[in-house]
Amino acid sequence: MNYWLIRSPYQHRTWDDCLMRNLFRLQGIRNPEASKNIGLMRAGDQALYYNNIGEKAIYGILEITKPPYADPTANEAKWMAVDAVPIKTFDPEITLEKLKAVETLAECPVITRPRLSVAQLTEQQFEEIVGNG
Prior knowledge:
Blueprint: E1 3-7, H1 15-21, E2 24-26, H2 32-40, E3 46-51, E4 57-64, E5 69-70, E6 80-95, H3 96-100, H4 109-112, E7 118-121, H5 123-131
Parallel strand pairs: 1-3
Antiparallel strand pairs: 1-7, 2-6, 3-4, 4-6, 5-6
């Protein structure tokens, strides 16, 4: 299993929207590194959902439901999309401020690459973040 950090690229979509729809479709990503990471995802992988609408925080865990596919919003086949379902909500959410205070997460993409939409996490980083929830 692989672990990921997904920063929602949608300005008006929240974790509550994911819960209501029981679906998070990640599409429209045009950053080559993020799209490459989407292409590496597999069904059963888990991802932390990070959103910076309002408070910058991780709101829950998503599970990838099927292999990546060509992004239907793109004119070129090189861009990828993926579907996921919410499987856990953090209450309260795990704030970026709280994560920055954890020394072992200093090299974590949520700290070092906050604008990258999709970044791979190590199992240790994933577990450390979940443990702070």
